[in-house]
């Protein structure tokens, strides 16, 4: 479902002033949208649809022009000209579809930010957007890190934890914006009517199928960043089977992971035939993360900068929390927090990083219908020493793996929660090794988000969760 501007022009906040507008969702994105609207007009009547446990927080604002509702029915939503929704709310929900048919327009905060920053030709000339099923946070952070190493004032924001509307108009203005976008937000950019200078797509695997309503629509929405938003330059992974087939008539395509551009030969980073860097010194776990350095350098070149002298700055990069994050060692066991892993592909990539170690893998969480058969097939020959299943989809994963345990040579156990999963993993390891939390599934139902799950894992392992949670570099620098 699209909500792009009828005239093709970028959406601007001023166009909403005086219209019947509602906010749907009161997380950090919803609050950012509220404050952005209030900065334009203090007494503008607004309606907020939020959960019952958020009512007191919203009313504490003391805003007499804000009406708070807890039930976002199709009839209520259809009463508004525009509804600014939080990213986690799917526009494919039946009530949203019904309201759209009555003329209500659904807009994300990302679309509003892009509309505000578009130039006369519709481009946001200093915006670099990064998406992908896996690796987008590390890639976006690494992009900001290298740009700053080149003395370029850069904002790191978006899905990484800082809503774009919280940094709507910083002063002094940054030279570049490094923007991470989830699949919930990529369609927003296309629908905004604005065009990013550079858009990077790292890879495409099935994910968030419950939000998108199926694999085909997930891929369509994810690719909307390049197919619909029509960036000036699209930076694409030549090694990805879906991306490798794309043709974008409205954008220049620059490929990475291809011999004539930035690519890896083993662990050696090359620009064409020229050796540039030994990536084993780059402090990111896994070859897949080092490969994404190629995407970063390609994007930097697409902005007209010389990437070669900046490549070495990757060695001083600080890894992000919850992404193959080594917490420390207790009694010979190393604890690794990969809580952000929400697909089976992510769990497989995590296992590959520790393929030479004895590993107890913790998998499972919210069940959104992803297919685990490919994961199970890999366990025939590439299984860790121990697999412990947990969460809502734990029994389904366990049933797939049970017939393979003897053939694959791994021990299999089931647990009710993270605590019991960890204790079973430690017991079955029976000595030194790695306890790897890489669930391959979201945390919904048991935790607020993957950060809360990672913090709990750190606490249960005996480490201070406060020391492992901060995202380095977020904001303006």
Walk me through this protein's architecture.
The chain has 477 residues and is of the alpha/beta class. It is 32% helix and 21% strand. It has helices at residues 28-40, 55-59, 74-77, 94-101, 109-117, 136-149, 183-192, 209-212, 215-227, 287-302, 344-353, 373-382, 394-401, 405-408, 418-429, 450-460; strands at 21-24, 46-49, 66-69, 82-85, 105-108, 123-131, 154-158, 176-180, 195-201, 233-237, 252-256, 262-265, 268-271, 274-278, 325-330, 333-337, 359-363, 386-389, 411-414, 433-437, 475-476. β15 and β16 form a beta hairpin. The longest helix has 16 residues, at 287-302. The protein is globular and about 65 Å long. The two termini are 37 Å apart.
Q: Which secondary-structure class do the elements indicate? A: alpha/beta
Average pLDDT score:
93
Low-confidence stretches: none
**Strand percentage:** 15-25%
Sheet with most strands: strand arrangement: 11-10-9-6-8-7-21
The helix fraction, in percent, is: 25-40%
**Number of DSSP helical runs:** 16
The main pleated sheet reads as: 7 strands, mixed
How many runs of DSSP E, i.e. beta strands? 21
Shape: globular
The N- to C-terminal Cα distance equals: 37 Å
Rg from Cα: 23 Å
């Amino acid at each position: 479902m699209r909500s792009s501007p009828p005239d093709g022009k970028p959406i601007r906040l001023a166009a909403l002033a005086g219209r019947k507008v509602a906010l749907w969702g009161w997380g950090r994105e919803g609050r950012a949208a509220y404050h952005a609207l209030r900065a334009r007009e203090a007494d503008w009547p607004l309606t907020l649809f939020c959960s019952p446990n958020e009512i007191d927080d919203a009313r504490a604002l003391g805003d007499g022009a804000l009406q708070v509702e807890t039930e976002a029915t199709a009839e209520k939503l259809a009463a508004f000209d525009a509804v600014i929704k939080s990213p986690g709310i799917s526009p494919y929900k039946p009530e949203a579809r019904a309201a759209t048919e009555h003329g209500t327009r659904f807009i994300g905060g990302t679309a509003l930010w892009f509309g505000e920053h578009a130039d006369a030709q519709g481009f946001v000339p200093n915006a670099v957007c990064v998406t992908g099923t896996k690796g987008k946070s590390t890639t976006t952070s690494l992009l900001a890190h290298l740009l700053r190493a080149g003395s370029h004032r850069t904002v790191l924001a978006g899905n990484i934890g800082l809503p774009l509307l919280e940094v709507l108009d910083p002063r002094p203005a940054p030279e570049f914006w490094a923007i991470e976008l989830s699949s919930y937000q990529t369609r927003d950019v296309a629908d905004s009517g604005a065009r990013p200078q550079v858009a990077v797509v790292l890879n495409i695997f099935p994910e968030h199928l419950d939000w998108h309503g199926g694999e085909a629509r997930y891929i369509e929405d994810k690719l909307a960043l390049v197919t619909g938003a029509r960036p000036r330059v699209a930076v694409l992974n030549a090694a990805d089977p879906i991306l490798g087939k794309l043709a974008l008539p409205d954008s220049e395509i620059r490929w990475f992971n291809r011999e004539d551009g930035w690519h890896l030969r083993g662990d050696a980073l090359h620009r064409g035939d020229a050796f540039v860097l030994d990536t084993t010194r780059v402090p990111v776990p896994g070859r897949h993360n080092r490969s994404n350095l190629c995407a970063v350098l390609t994007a930097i070149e697409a902005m007209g900068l010389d990437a070669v002298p900046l490549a070495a700055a990757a060695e001083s990069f600080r890894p992000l929390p919850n992404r193959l994050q080594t917490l420390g060692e207790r009694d010979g066991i190393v604890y690794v927090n990969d809580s952000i892993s929400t697909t089976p592909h992510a769990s497989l990539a995590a296992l590959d990083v520790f393929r030479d170690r004895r590993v107890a893998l913790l998998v499972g969480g919210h069940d959104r219908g992803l297919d685990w058969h490919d994961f199970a097939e890999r366990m025939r020959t590439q299984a860790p020493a121990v697999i412990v299943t947990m969460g809502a989809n734990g029994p389904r994963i366990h049933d797939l793996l049970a017939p393979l345990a003897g053939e694959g040579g791994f021990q299999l156990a089931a647990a009710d929660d993270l605590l019991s999963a960890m204790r079973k993993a430690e017991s079955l390891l029976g000595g030194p090794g790695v306890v790897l939390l890489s669930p391959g599934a979201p945390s919904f139902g048991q935790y607020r988000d993957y950060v809360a799950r990672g913090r709990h894992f750190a606490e249960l392992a005996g480490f201070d969760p406060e020391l492992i949670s901060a995202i380095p570099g977020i904001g303006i620098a």
